[in-house]
Amino acid sequence: MSTLKCQHLFENNPVIAGVRSPKQLKEAIDSPTEVIFLLCGSIYNLEMMVNHIKQAGKSAFVHLDLIKGYGQDSYFVKYLADDIHPAGVISTKNSLLQRAKQDGLMTIQRVFMLDSAALEVSLNAVRKVRPDAVEVLPGVVPKLITRVDEALNIPIITGGFIQTAEEVRAGLEAGALSCSTSDPELWSLNYSIKNK
Question: pTM for the full model?
Fold first, then answer.
């Protein structure tokens, strides 16, 4: 069920706001996207940021590997699920994603495709964890996105180096459901892409 919910969420949001600093949060909340990836935060502001996103009727995904002041362990994941309640989490760490799934959070496994060896290692890791979605970085290689899409039956998000509307569209045409970007100028593409 979680994978279907995740797939529906990303199909309806072809552009995801990747927030790299708390200063970007208001702009992301005011943008047309309904999904916000928190790529920043700390023990002092994470709960507040997630609450602002939820109050705006949007879905917050916390990147576990980038949050400061918390231990990167299963206790952190349980605390997120029980007390902060984001829609889901993002991580490169299999154990954290497995714990997040147990705690009822949507999961996105972030993988870096540096070469063909990294591709095979990443595909095997994704098959083992079975996250609700996989985020492929860098997101500017359509051939790679197509290859991952053919190898996995999991929704794909692209990210990393997405700087133009053409790169967003190329990722979507290659098989991704969404593109995450920290460029606020691209967040407004959501409306125009959905209504084509």
Answer: 0.95
